[in-house]
Amino acid sequence: MRNFFKQWKALLPLAIIFVFVGLIGGIFYNSLQKQNYSATNEILVINAGESVMPEDLMSIANSKELVGNSAIENANVDKTCAYKANKSGNVIKITSTCESNGEDAKKLSNSVVDVFSGAIMSVYNNSELAVKTITHAEAEERITSLNRILYVIIPVLAGLALSAFVAFVKLDHETSKKHK
Questions:
Q1: What's the CA gap between 48 and 130, in Å, rounded?
Q2: 108-146 as b/e, with b when 16 or more CB fall inside 10 Å?
Q3: I need a labelling partner for 78 at 20 to 30 A (CA). Which of 49, 121, 156, 179 fits?
Q4: Greatest Cα-to-Cα distance within the chain, rounded to the nearest angstrom
Q5: Which of 35, 30, 33, 31 is nearest to 97 (CA)?
Q6: Whole-structure pTM over 0.90, yes or no?
Q7: From the centroid of its chain, how far is CA 177?
Q8: DSSP 3-state assignment of 35?
Q9: Mind listing the pLDDT tens digit of every residue in the chain (180 residues)?
Q10: Which residues pair with residue 98 across a beta bridge?
Q11: At what angle do helices 145-179 and 2-10 cross, to 10 degrees?
Q12: At what angle do helices 145-179 and 12-32 cross, to 10 degrees?
């Protein structure tokens, strides 16, 4: 182990270069990450007979023509906002994301639920269908301060680990030369 650290110390300039490159790469990647906010609603369609499949409901929720365009217009949010509906069993999870602020993400998520409710009633021609919101998660930042710190620290540690790997390979090479 002592020999390994001697080898690593001998490669200190290379280790500093690797760490510096990792730092610059981490800072660059961090600067490319735009902050966005997300809000989620989980909904359940009630009184939906056996012919109504969760996959169909998810498709209706993701449809730009039936739900998307109207929901964005009703929410009065900017064009950086988007949403995605996924299913988990019979529950439809609607997650909206916005770059502008958390309030827009929340408004879009709620608007999608409202427009979706009307869309399924018209598609299935059944006024007894009802949409119940099971959970509503408030808007939250997608990129937190901890994430930003990790975006910088991980490449730095990778540079340090790479320098340790190079030192180990060099030590192994020198040790194998001595045994021949």
A1: 8
A2: bbbbbbebbbebbeeebeeeebebeeeeeeebeebeeee
A3: 121
A4: 86
A5: 35
A6: no
A7: 49
A8: coil
A9: 777 777 767 777 888 888 899 889 888 888 887 777 888 888 887 766 676 677 777 787 787 877 777 887 777 777 778 888 888 777 788 888 888 777 888 888 888 888 888 887 777 776 677 777 777 777 666 666 777 788 888 898 898 888 888 878 877 777 777 765
A10: 37
A11: 110
A12: 150
Count the neighbouring beta carbons within 10 Å of the beta carbon of residue 94.
26
Beta bridge partners, 97, equal 38, 82
CA of 17: how far to CAs of 22, 24, 42, in Å?
8, 10, 49
Q: How far is residue 49 from each of residues 43, 83, 124, 134, measured CA to CA in Å?
A: 16, 27, 10, 19
| Structure tokens given for 111 | 């608007």
